[in-house]
Amino acid sequence: MNLPKLLVATRNIGKKREIRGLLGHLPTEIVFPDDIGIYESSVEVNLETESTFEANALKKAEYFQKKSRLPTVADDSGIEVLSLGGAPGVRSRRFALASPGQNEDEANNTELLRRLAGATPDRRGARYRSVAVFIKQLGAVPQVFEGSCHGRIATEPKGKGGFGYDPLFFSDDLQKTFGEATQQEKDGVSHRGRAFRALGKWLEENPL
């Protein structure tokens, strides 16, 4: 039996792993752009230039739905540090310029620690946010799902798991960093886990 396809508009390896696990129970074939021959283009650089997570996710969903003609979901997510006025926020992926040979995540984590050098625990409060936007077909009303989780920024990276700022994000729910958590533990409380479980529940009630 051929299952209906759902395009998840991301090229991020970590996100692919998480989202496949979060939506894997649906009677749907989860595919990513490369799987269906939509290879990376310079146009995609301008898909995350808006001032909100929702606006960025909507632009990505619209672009990839138009390219694929498949039901499409895109998310934009990041970490917000209260004492930094919500930064990095929508610039989480592009918070720092990586040096030659330096990993992007490493550069971003280093920059965040630099900004918070000497900050007391009460100035390290943070939250992760994810906004997922689903578009079934051209002209359809977008469906928006949001998830967040709270914690603080640790004084040094801990753990080898996850990606992005996970080694620095000390979760209030887990009482350890996402870098120290198992994938199952992280998915249970994370911003992306909450957003995509909400999407999954909606898709159960509104099948493709």
Order of H and E elements:
EHEHEHEEEEHH
Provide the β-strand percentage band.
Answer: 15-25%
Global geometry: globular
Q: What is the total domain count?
A: 1
Structural class: alpha/beta
If classified by CATH, what would the architecture be? Alpha-Beta Complex
- Main β sheet profile: 7 strands, mixed
Q: Any overview of this molecule?
A:
This protein is α/β, with parallel strands linked by helices and 208 residues long. It has a single domain (5-205), classed as Maf protein, CATH 3.90.950. It is 29% helix and 21% strand. It is built from five helices and seven strands; from the N terminus they run E-H-E-H-E-H-E-E-E-E-H-H. A seven-stranded mixed β-sheet has the order 2-1-3-4-5-6-7. A hairpin with a 4-residue loop joins strand 6 and strand 7 (176-177). Helix 1 (13-23) crosses helix 5 (191-205). It is globular, with a radius of gyration of 17 Å. The two termini are 15 Å apart.
